[in-house]
Each structure stands twice: as C-alpha cells, then as structure tokens.
C-alpha cells in the first residue's frame, strides 16, 4: 500500500469560479413549473366583468337626513330634535309611507358611538328598512 505525498501546494489553491450547476438546476425547475401553470391560468371561463363606475350619490328630497354632532345632538334635515320620543314619532310616521324613504346618517368623527347607535336603534324600531351612512369620499392621488 502506498501513499502519495506531494510537496507542492497545488491542492491547496483556492478555486475562483462559481459552481453554476445548482443555479441552472433551479432555473430549469422554475421554467418547467411556469410552462405547466401558465396554460392553466390562461384557460378560464370567459366572463365579461362589470366596469367600475364612480358616480356621486344623488340625494333625493324624500330621503331623511339625520346628523349627529360631536355632542350627540340629533338633527333631522338640519332641524334639531330635542329628545328620542320626538325622533321615534317622526320615524314611525315616515315608516308608514310607501315606498319607504331611506335614512342617511351623518356622524361627526368625534361622536361617541353610543349616540349613533341610539339613532340606528330608533330607526330599526320605527320599522325603516334602509339605513345608510354618509362619509366623505377619499381624495384621489
């Protein structure tokens, strides 16, 4: 049995090239995956999607505008409503109309939720089916 001992340092030299074989293997696997999945993604059921429309909401005069300021005061079409009984009486009268008007609630950002919740509950108890919240539209960039 023999052993070769070399005195030169040729085996200890640093190899300065990058082994690209694993990179090529990964790229080929990704290429195959994409070639398989692209036809599946393209073949879908033909559906005509609706186009987006951003039309401003037209306020009808028969709609009820309820505003709640930051102190919790309720306003019916800009007229102050002093108590919950008056609000309930007016909402019940509006609920009898056919078709029923919509109730649009405008709440101040500083309003406690309890005040708005009382208005929502009164509207529901009166029997009005359509309640909407009015907000400020977002600013387009």
Automatic annotation (TrEMBL):
Q: Which UniProt keywords apply?
A: Cell inner membrane, Cell membrane, Membrane, Protein transport, Transmembrane, Transmembrane helix, Transport
Gene3D superfamilies hit by this protein:
3.30.420.270
Q: Which Pfam families does this one have? A: ExbD
Keyword Cytoplasm present in the record's keywords: the answer is no
Question: A Gene Ontology biological process annotation?
Answer: protein transport
| InterPro entries reported in the protein's UniProt record | ExbD
Q: Which domain of life is it from?
A: Bacteria
Q: Does the keyword Magnesium apply?
A: no
Q: Which residues, if any, are the signal sequence?
A: none
Subcellular location field: Cell inner membrane; Cell membrane
What is the membrane topology listed in the Swiss-Prot or TrEMBL record? Single-pass type II membrane protein
Q: Name one GO molecular function term.
A: transmembrane transporter activity
Got a GO cellular component term for this one?
A: plasma membrane
- Provide the transmembrane region boundaries: 26-45
Q: In which family does this protein belong, per the annotation?
A: Belongs to the ExbD/TolR family.
What functional role does this protein have? Involved in the TonB-dependent energy-dependent transport of various receptor-bound substrates.
Spell out the subunit comment.
The accessory proteins ExbB and ExbD seem to form a complex with TonB.
Q: Provide the protein name.
A: Biopolymer transporter ExbD
What species was this sequence derived from? Acinetobacter tandoii DSM 14970 = CIP 107469
